[in-house]
Design a protein that fits this description.
globular; six-stranded antiparallel beta sheet; 12 helices; binds beta-D-glucopyranose; glycosidase; TIM Barrel; Immunoglobulin-like; signal; 601 residues
Length: 601
Amino acid sequence: MSKVRATNRRSWLRRGFATASSLALGASMVALAAPANAAGCSVDYQVNSWGSGFTASVTITNLGSALSNWTLEWDFPGNQQVTNLWNGSYSQSGQHVSVDNAPYNGSVGEGGTVNFGFNGSYSGSNDIPTSFSLNGVTCDGSVDPDPPTDPTDPPTDPTDPPTDPTDPPTDPTDPPTDPGERVDNPFVGAQGYVNPVWSAKAAAEPGGSAVANESTAVWLDRIGAIEGNDSATTGSMGLRDHLDEAVAQADGDPLVIQVVIYNLPGRDCAALASNGELGPEEIDRYKNEYIDPIADIMSDYAQYDNLRIVNIIEIDSLPNLVTNTTDNAGGTELCDQMKANGNYVNGVGYALATLGDIPNAYNYVDAAHHGWIGWDTNFGPSAEIFYEAANASGATVDDVHGFIANTANYSALEEPYLDVNGTVNGQMIRQSDWVDWNQYVDELSFAQDLRQELVSVGFNSDIGMLIDTSRNGWGGPERPTGPSSATDLNTYVEESRIDRRFNPGNWCNQAGAGLGERPTAAPEPGIDAYVWAKPPGESDGASEYIENDEGKGFDEMCDPAYGGNARNGNSPSGALPNAPISGHWFSAQFQELLANAYPPL
Ligand code: BGC
């Protein structure tokens, strides 16, 4: 299957979010929403061709104000002919195609997406259309704050009274309308914050300047990081320094800064590489010395209503309570303790409630990845525990803007040559050693389904997902270029999968991994953005014990010689050798990520 992506994601990537940076949302003082009649769009056109026929999936992102009906038009570059179309109605004349909404999908809010699909025939080459227009406006990712009125609109009634010239002009010092209102998808129409500390390290690497201007998250991985403690991980910049710098980078336009909240009591209960500074019972210190000061600082920036603070809440914590207590193979007593004392649930609830009070902050809760909670037995229970945390310590579901999958992990975004519902020689792909009955083989399908599950357990229906694509590219010479022709199930899966890990449970400094999709806003339905939450080049953990004052232990999963345990199917760890402790710069890993980037750099 060839998946071609045609979009207007050209080079708008000033700092990160591809659909974003060229957008001017009108008067920046009131930049929370597009002007009432603004128009703009981007189109994601994916096609799967098989010689004479093809299927296309088209996703429109509305970057302008809300629409109540839409028409998308394009010209095919060749002799393609639409044969049938769903989620809309079409007409084709020569190369020109026009698609109108179906009766049920005409309404698309600001930042919203709508998808339709069609089958087509062609001969020769199946090149993708180069330009689309939505209701007459070219979809190039920009927003026209004042598009021309439809010439077929009835003229204004000439008897309308003229505007009273004595009307008082709007007071420029008026507070923006409803500053407490969050936008649906904070990544749309916003550039992404470039962390100068990470950027300098990336730029100093050979070849690193190609990505040094990407947006990566700021990790507050200990109390000292709030003020900036000159440590190897955070450098000298504290939270306030980053927010000041973000205001400067924003320069009056919308900007997203991602902050990882990562300091729970008894952190990383199933692994050791990222154990933290707070003991399992130190929930009060978490609240008083960590979350409260962060909230105080962020609140000082609430007046910058074009600064969108995305808080990524507590990586790998809640899923540990589902899968890594000792009633599971390979579970740990620390996870038992964290489940019994409630400090993960209450800590996450406290973070959500406290940070959720900041009008320009958006909370996204960590939701592990498909290779962790993609099995039926873990999927539903994880959604339940997220819901419990979202209602703990004064939090409500309104404090949750969305969830993030794959933070600091390596799971592929899409496995183009592996259909989890398929069979080989009469055997289900799901029963292969690699898939091992998981419901998913990749993150995009997992994140989209998990979103539905979360809504069904009680989260708001407009939550959005983020996927960390910082290290899930799986390019380079080892990447398969098509499905295997083997008839043996396991050989087929091994030869078809792009994820080259020994086991999907492997998580430490993976050999063969590459940079994944560059940060992109609204890439797929239900997905608010692809982000680089884990800054590429920062270690997941030391390959042998290294003394440190950060509370970090040594986890054998980071030792390349380790043969594995129950949690990774007793497979080799696949880790790169000579790694420093987690969070510290690991040049060899950064080089590996550049070499295996996919899409290639
Ligand atoms: C480490 C943190 C670090 C983060 C980002 C985590 O594994 O424990 O110290 O800030 O990765 O690199």
